[in-house]
Amino acid sequence: IPTGWKIYFKENMAIFWPMSEGFRARNADYYKKISALGNVVFVSDEFETFKLIDSSRFVAAATGTVILESVVRGKNALIFGSAWYQECEGVWKIGNYEQLRIAVDRIIEGNKPSPKKIKEYASLVEELSVPDVNVYGYVTKYDSMPDKEDVIRRLAHLFIKGYETLSSMSVEDKKRT
Predict the structure, then answer these.
(1) How far from the centroid of its chain's Cα atoms is residue 106's Cα?
(2) Angle, nearest 10°, between helix axes 115-128 and 148-168?
(3) I need a labelling partner for 30 at 20 to 30 A (CA). Which of 58, 61, 161, 176 fits?
(4) Is 70 part of a structural domain of the chain?
(5) Residues 100 and 146 in one domain
(6) Average pLDDT for residues 12-41, to the nearest whole number?
(7) Name one Pfam family in it (predicted).
(8) Considering the domain boundaries, does residue 1 fall inside one?
(9) Average pLDDT of 133-148?
(10) DSSP summary character for residue 173
């Protein structure tokens, strides 16, 4: 991060829910280490997320809806975890320091997510979606479905279709999507 920039840290309060795995990983030392960076400003959980996004240069998170909210609002987003939307335009998947450096450099140079590509991605997600299946892969209302085998066939068909689409793309095309 360039000298003089501030990092505004807004915690997702769901991290503290007992049902969440995160509550075991974030104790006072976690926040003390972040605070010790010197350029971090902790933001109240009541501060409007969209105002924070709109006034940012980019957004960074492990995962979460804030990543998609950011790209839809025209801001690049760095994702440090894995999520179904990590290939969306404007989402930079970060797995190491070099990827972080490249992403931040490109963002500073003026790289912005293309609204057209975001819409194309959203259309593709919609096209490849199956009713009654959520983003976590659980089939909802599965027990009440009259033809469970049909759901499995449709999922298999979509997997094959997605594989064929991706495998037929050149490496350069994959990098652009």
Answers:
(1) 18
(2) 140
(3) 58
(4) yes
(5) no
(6) 80
(7) Capsule_synth
(8) no
(9) 55
(10) H
